[in-house]
Design brief:
This protein is an all-alpha fold. The chain is about 50% helix and about 0% strand. It has helices at about 1-5, 15-35, 80-105, 130-135, 135-155, 185-215, and strands at about 215, 220. The protein has a two-stranded antiparallel sheet with strand order 1-2. The longest helix is centred in the C-terminal third of the chain and has 31 residues, at about 185-215.
């Protein structure tokens, strides 16, 4: 079956190995990301840093606990750790949008009309890496400018606006019913977002790898 599905199976075993490794990494990351959230210290033999002051932080959960095998957080104070957590949350949110974008565009859903004045339509732009290289220069610059605006003026913690935790960028402007939740529900939802973001980072990385290798992925389709 493998030789039929992958014509290069016999002549290029390296490609199959890369696919296998990518799949294992993606599955392992997803499994850890969707593990039940624990607010306290995780008691497990796999806990790589049980002596860290951050073992009780949100996201330090079974089966790995506070997983920092490279000692990146060694000597960090709370402010430095919070900075890394903010970056992690941002990357997770971006990757969730990226993964959803892959599914939507590969399903054939595109904006109507033209993307540029030369008559190029949104539907003419491909998916993934290929699509990003097909966007006109002026369009790419607009995207870059918009991302810069969000990073510098919107997606940041503005002091004195009532934000409650790292990654809370409401800044007194958005709510969506957040203040109606009790503390336990808030903590649960924050853990869910963090885990989904971690899974999305592994997922979009897996899609990027498979896009270069070719093949088909369930739900997403042909790459």
């Amino acid at each position: 079956c493998l030789s039929h599905a992958y014509p290069l199976f016999h002549c290029t075993p390296i490609i199959l190995t890369m696919k296998t490794v990518a799949a294992i990494i993606a599955l392992a990351g997803s499994a850890a990301a969707f593990a039940p959230a624990q607010n306290g210290k995780a008691s497990t033999a796999l806990n790589a840093r049980s002596d860290s002051p951050f073992v009780g932080e949100l996201g330090a959960q079974a089966p790995l606990g506070f997983f920092d095998p490279l000692n990146v957080c060694e000597g960090f104070d709370q402010a430095q750790f919070d900075r890394l957590r903010e970056v992690e949350i941002k990357h997770g949110r971006i990757c969730q949008l990226a993964f959803l974008g892959q599914i939507v565009t590969r399903a054939g859903l595109r904006l109507p009309g033209n993307i540029s004045t030369d008559g190029t339509k949104f539907s003419d732009i491909g998916e993934g890496w290929a699509g990003s290289l097909q966007v006109p220069v002026a369009g790419a610059l607009q995207i870059l400018a918009f991302v810069g605006f969000l990073e510098l003026g919107v997606m940041k913690d503005i002091e004195g606006t009532g934000n409650e935790h790292v990654g809370d960028f409401r800044n007194g402007a958005l709510d969506f019913g957040w203040d109606t939740f009790d503390e336990e529900t808030k903590l649960s939802k924050r853990a869910i977002e963090l885990n989904n973001g971690r899974a999305a980072m592994m997922g979009i990385l897996g899609l990027m790898v498979h896009e270069q290798l070719g093949g088909s992925v369930p739900i997403v389709g042909e790459l």
